[in-house]
Predict the 3D structure of the following.
Amino acid sequence: MRRRAISCKSIPPSKSVSLAHYKVQMTFKELGLHDDVLNALGYMNFEKATPIQEQAIPQILQGRDLIACAQTGTGKTAAFILPIIDKLVTQPHKGTNTLVIVPTRELAIQIDQQIQGFSYFTPVHSQTVYGGGDASGYINEKKALEIGVDIVVATPGKLKSHLMMGLTNFDHLEHLILDEADRMMDMGFIEDIQFIISKLPEKRQNLMFSATMAPKIRTLVREILHEPFEINLNLSKPAEGVTQQVYLAHDEQKVPLISQVLKAHPEFTSTLIFSSTKKNVFTIVRALRAKGFEVHGISSDLEQKEREQVLSDFRSRRTPVLVATDVLSRGIDIQDINLVVNYDAPSNAEDYVHRVGRTARSNTKGMAITLVNGKDMRRLQEIESLIGYEITRMPMPEVLGPAPEWRIGSGGNRKNRFRKKKPNSSEGKRPNFRKAKPSKPKGDSNH
Ligand code: AMP
């Protein structure tokens, strides 16, 4: 299904706050946070606030509704959690005070871990609520919800079923946070979210975070938020530190090509390969294992426990190569991935930015390679028009046979579509495959 995602640029500039205006970074002390919160931030080595934190924290402390167009990697979690913990420490409250709704269990766990860190020196408690857990998880959820734990971080489906059983204590809820709102819409959670909201007190502060401003998000903003403060971090381009390359490749050339790239870069200790389909994830895993790589796969088909284990092994670098569906492309924070490979071009151009955003985080360098077959050329064109420049085309290594021909528009017109080229473009250079052993061009039966 094709989705039309509108980038954050659609927030009118007069109302939005652009990153470019905020060169001076404030400290958390200057933002007026409580000493117990500052203490935890000190232990976590958070010195200066990121732009979204600098913008959002004062507004949230003042009690204003907020819509922020921001992606993972901008520090958005701390932007909404720090002022909430501050209020919980400084203001009287009872029952569950804050509800954070997120699209996936992984994101719920990640946010809960951050809350535990930020609230370490405070009496604030949080609880995750998500599907697919075991019996003891359910008992913990039930107990925490009935007691009225301070902060609940939940996925919509599971929370709805708790609400229907009357297990929650949301009568005094003061804050509702919707994180990754666009992803929740894409995953079909709108009705669950509307149901949950219908059970909350009307007088509350609402904060919404979304990577895109699709029309349905605008509708949700109008339905839920009251005169929100708007923040636009406008990150619809990959970071400068990412070297982006495209290979036009037939499907049967993809695994041999990935294998060559990995062999040519033994220094890459963390590689994330994205597949648009769940079906392909484990086909790619098997094919790469047959070529001798230590690789694992993750998709929503895995049990919750297995997903957590696979993610944790990849985070800690016990697994150097992970093949994943888009479940991982948003929200999940994994530091210092060296290489992102798009096994296929994502159907939504914004997903390209999210996938590539897994590398070169926090001003580090990274590489992103996109493999484009004959069917995906139109998608590549859409990606390039979103980011505003042409991605460097790499020649297929000769041993892998001829690549597909570019079939959209004429070559001359295509080159003229963009005035700008990526500054680190290395077009024309031959790929560095000196260390690679030749592999068979066709008939990689494991693929
Ligand atoms: P997020 O965008 O919330 O997923 O955060 C991305 C990463 O940046 C997480 O690992 C955070 O712990 C980290 N982070 C967020 N804010 C700061 C900060 N002000 N200083 C240092 N690290 C930060």
About this structure: Residues 76-90 form the longest helix (15 residues). Residues 9 and 234 are 6 Å apart (CA to CA).
